[in-house]
Amino acid sequence: MRFSGWRVLKEGLTGNKGWAPHWRDPEPQPEYDVVIIGGGGHGLATAYNLAKEHGITNVAVLEKGYLGGGNVGRNTTIVRANYYLPGNSEFYSHSLKQWEGLEEELNYNVMMSQRGQIMVYHNDGQRDAMVRRGNAIINQGDDAELLNREALRKLVPILNYDNARFPIMGGLLQRRAGTARHDAVAWGFARGADQRGVDLIQNCEVTGIDVENGKVRGVQTSRGVIRAKKVALAAAGRSGQVAAMAGLRLPIESHVLQAFVSEGIKPVLNHVVSFAEGHLYVSQSDKGGLVFGSYLDFYSSYAARGNLPMVEHTMETCVSMVPALAKAKVLRSWGGIMDMTPDGSPIIDHSGIEGLYLNCGWCYGGFKAIPGSGNAYAHLIATDRPHGAATKFKLDRFRSGQGLMDEEGTGAQHNLH
Amino acid sequence: MRIICPICGDRDRREFYVKGAALARPEASATLEDWHDHVNLRDNPAGEIKELWYHEMGCSAWIEVCRSTVSHEIVSTRLASTADLGGKR
Ligand SMILES: Cc1cc2nc3c(=O)[nH]c(=O)nc-3n(C[C@H](O)[C@H](O)[C@H](O)COP(=O)(O)OP(=O)(O)OC[C@H]3O[C@@H](n4cnc5c(N)ncnc54)[C@H](O)[C@@H]3O)c2cc1C
Ligand SMILES: [Zn+2]
């Protein structure tokens, strides 16, 4: 089934009776070439790429809940390619290019909205850092524009330019950045993978990974044993626990990150704006709700909900930076479990066990990574060589200390990102 | 979340800085593997974990807190100085 404007019109006129489910609900087979653990954005995009780019279609995605019920459906949907360090820079650049063609590629409306993202600076030091970052982004081949206070004020008048402690001096704009509809990204990749023969198996929790003589044999699940030539982790916040099933310890702590949505209001904010002060970021959804968040709660957690101090911090910062929003009521808030690495950057690599692959450590930035990660991870699984855009996402960098990618410059330590 | 400081009693989470997993420090002469393990690798349990919290806005004590990462319940606390984390020198 292909989607088109014509099809939507026809269905609209005939009572919408012709739509079929977007994917099958297959029983697990006893054996697959590749089993992917986790039906989030990364797992689904990887399955799609295995089938599409490498012709590997005897693949199952095993999801303990429902497709898209994890972080892929819990994030604040920001997509951008304005990272600074080699490794991250080329990867996110690659991923943004994939985003730009994603809707045509998947024949699915992911509501990709390149509305522009602005990183606001409050002082000379931050301005210098933005200039440097902007140059790195341009060197990478992506777009960056430094805006002074007046130029920024014209684009985004609603901000508080005269906060006594954190006045706004300007911002770094990336016009190609923006937002996408997160659920649709999961659904689009799921549908594309299913159409190419991948089995998407929901309500199937992996409870064990079978390894014999250093080689992976398959997995134990709540729906029985499934054998596999290759097993690929894509379990995001649960990565540590799934890896432990194969006897591995990862450089990962799981932390909670909260997000907030206000009641719908008329359009007041056309861009995604993030602030150097307080880690705050705000955008306005197409429905009119303001979507915002800030820091992690900073303690290990598997509860998909946070605590009040970080709620308070986020509200305080939001009202200081965008005072008009004080009048909007907050409708909803929730949390997601983040797989935090010591340097805040991800891992796409071999696990050290033959046939077992790792994709984890996306921290709070793995939504924008989904198309690029699916592409790169599938390449690694299919060819056993890293994809050109993801050569630096090595597991071993933590042991050796070489090639750490600490974007925030706070130090590559667990409690600092 | 409220943390029980062994000196000050039941206090708001805002008074504390959290350092992360409470781990016994390897000897200075320990191998690279031991240090890698200590600095980077984590059990990351879904359940009870022992962590170091610092009563920054209270008595300045370092506290070993046993806490559930699933419910956020504080199970028990004691002074870090009694938790034998310092290792050998
Ligand atoms: C509040 C919040 C805001 C965020 N904002 C942004 C943002 O603006 N931009 C951005 O780029 N990123 C953002 N992120 C990060 C991003 O959402 C994640 O990094 C990314 O979604 C993680 O990859 P995933 O989609 O594959 O994860 P998930 O969707 O969590 O997928 C992992 C799946 O694995 C399944 N699983 C786990 N264990 C097992 C098992 N044993 N057996 C079977 N299945 C299992 C889970 O059920 C889950 O569905 C945000 C995250 C949160 C929580
Ligand atoms: Zn105290």
Describe the protein's architecture and organization.
Chain A: It catalyses: sarcosine + O2 + H2O = formaldehyde + glycine + H2O2; sarcosine + (6S)-5,6,7,8-tetrahydrofolate + O2 = (6R)-5,10-methylene-5,6,7,8-tetrahydrofolate + glycine + H2O2. Chain A: This is Sarcosine oxidase subunit beta. Chain A: GO terms for molecular function: nucleotide binding; sarcosine oxidase activity. Chain A: InterPro entries: FAD-dep_OxRdtase, FAD/NAD-bd_sf, Rhodanese-like_dom, SoxB. Chain A: Pfam families: DAO (PF01266). The complex is a heterodimer of chains A (417) and B (89). Chain A contains 11 helices and 19 strands. By secondary structure, chain A is an alpha+beta fold. Chain A folds into 2 domains: 29-112 and 179-252 and 341-417, FAD/NAD(P)-binding domain, CATH 3.50.50; 117-175 and 255-337, 2-Layer Sandwich (D-Amino Acid Oxidase, Chain A, domain 2). In chain A, strands 4, 5, 6, 12, 13, 14, 15, 16 and 17 form a 9-stranded mixed sheet that branches. Chain A is globular. The relative contact order of chain A is 0.18. The mean pLDDT of chain A is 97. The longest helix of chain B has 8 residues, at 32-39. Chain B is globular, with a radius of gyration of 14 Å. The termini of chain B are far apart. With 89 residues, chain B is mostly beta strands. Chain B has a single domain (1-25, 45-89), classed as Folate-binding superfamily (Folate-binding fold). In chain B, the strands form 2 sheets. In chain B, strands 3-4-5-6 form a 4-stranded antiparallel sheet, with no helix packed on it. Chain B has a two-stranded antiparallel sheet with strand order 1-2. The model of chain B has no long low-confidence stretch (mean pLDDT 94). Bound molecules: flavin-adenine dinucleotide and zinc ion (ZN). Zinc ion (ZN) is lined by residues 5, 7-8, 55, 58-59, 61 of chain B. Zinc ion binds at residues 5, 7-8, 55, 58-59, 61 of chain B.
